Amino acid sequence: QVQLVESGGGLVQAGGSLRLSCAASGRTISSYTMGWFRQAPGKEREFVAAISWNGVTIYYADSMKGRLTISRDNAKNTVDLQMSSLKAEDTAVYYCVLDLKRAWPSTNYDSSQQYDYWGQGTQVTVSS
């Protein structure tokens, strides 16, 4: 059974930065697509970023493009999300996800249905 554990969330002022980390256990994730989603209060869960097994193919949500960097360390079984120039509307619970079926993100990489495993989430709060 795969477990994904996020860390690094917290309270930050608008314009600040945060780095989220996701550690996988129970299985080596080096051959699979990983990503991040988020869910704000009263809103649907939305795609944030996805990364292929080797880090070559990366997708970002348009709403956050230019403010995100997703990376992975397959030796450590981790994936990170560096967020900068944060805005109040970035406040949400951020979830780490794993697509255990694909090494490369699918054409529907921004659909939550593509991902088999989800972490418990980490809260990011941006104060304005």
Structure in words:
By secondary structure, the protein is mostly beta strands. The chain has no helices and eleven strands. It is globular, with a radius of gyration of 13 Å. It starts with a strand and ends with a strand. The model has no long low-confidence stretch (mean pLDDT 97).
**Got a strand count?**
11
User: Taking Cα atoms only, what radius of gyration do you get, to the nearest Å?
Assistant: 13 Å
The largest sheet is: 7 strands, mixed
Q: What string, H for helix and E for strand, traces the elements in order?
A: EEEEEEEEEEE
Task: Output the number of helix runs.
Answer: 0
How far apart lie the N and C ends? Answer: 40 Å
| Low-confidence sequence ranges | none
> What share of residues is helical?
under 10%
> Which structural class best describes the helix and strand composition?
mainly beta
Features:
128 residues, mainly beta, 7-stranded mixed β-sheet, 4-stranded antiparallel β-sheet, 0% helix, 48% strand, globular
Short description:
With 128 residues, the chain is mainly β. 0% of the residues lie in helices and 48% in strands. A hairpin with a 4-residue loop joins strand 7 (68-73) and strand 8.
